[in-house]
Write a structure and sequence with these properties.
By secondary structure, the chain is of the alpha+beta class. About 25% of the residues lie in helices and about 45% in strands. It is built from 2 helices and 10 strands. The strands form 2 sheets. The chain has an 8-stranded antiparallel barrel. Strands 9-10 form a two-stranded antiparallel sheet. β2 and β3 form a beta hairpin. The chain is elongated, with a radius of gyration of 25 Å.
């Protein structure tokens, strides 16, 4: 009886050997993949954001937004915002990191507007509050740059106003900053 192995059989043997070699490593790698896919970033969750804006020719308006930060299918940090007083004023965007700063880019969902923000990165410090600067437009559609805070804990209006006022400084004419 002659035993001849054809090309198809050799392919099956080679594939079986490769799978047999890789399978134990794959079982060790699966928990790592699951841990990475389902990990929760420090930034993920509900945040409360506060800032001042202008409307009707310069009237100062205190604003509160509720932010929800989570990872999307591409593993990017995405953000959605809601304003309880203005339900139509919704934004969606992404968060990236540059050096020691969080860069947030928001785009209006039902209106045409883009807001760019730069916050101190809270990840190295583990703080529950971050201070940043934002550029966008006010309710009269005029450009503005302002100080914003994002807090894990919901602050009272008085607490948020106090923090905003204490952190806002004008370093020189035309230069807005955040006090240390």
């Amino acid at each position: 009886m002659e035993f001849i192995i054809g090309l198809k059989e050799w392919i099956v043997i080679i594939i079986g050997a490769v799978i047999g070699y890789i399978l134990p490593y794959l079982f060790k790698f699966i928990p790592y993949i699951l841990c990475f896919a389902f990990r929760k970033e420090l930034l993920e969750g509900i945040w409360h954001a506060y800032h001042f804006s202008r409307m009707h020719g310069g009237k100062t308006l205190f604003r509160y937004e509720r932010w929800k930060i989570k990872r999307d299918v591409l593993n990017r940090l995405v953000i959605t915002t809601k304003d309880p007083k203005n339900p139509d004023l919704k934004y969606k965007g992404i968060i990236s990191v540059e050096k020691n700063y969080l860069l947030i880019l928001l785009k209006g969902v039902k209106h045409e507007e883009e807001v760019q923000m730069r916050f101190s990165n809270i990840i190295p410090t583990g703080q529950d509050i971050a201070y940043g600067l934002a550029m966008g437009v006010d309710f009269d559609n005029k450009p503005q740059c302002l100080v914003r805070i994002m807090s894990r804990k919901e602050l009272t209006e008085e607490e948020a106003k106090e923090v905003l006022l204490s952190k806002t400084i004008i370093r020189e004419p035309g230069i807005i900053g955040i006090s240390e």
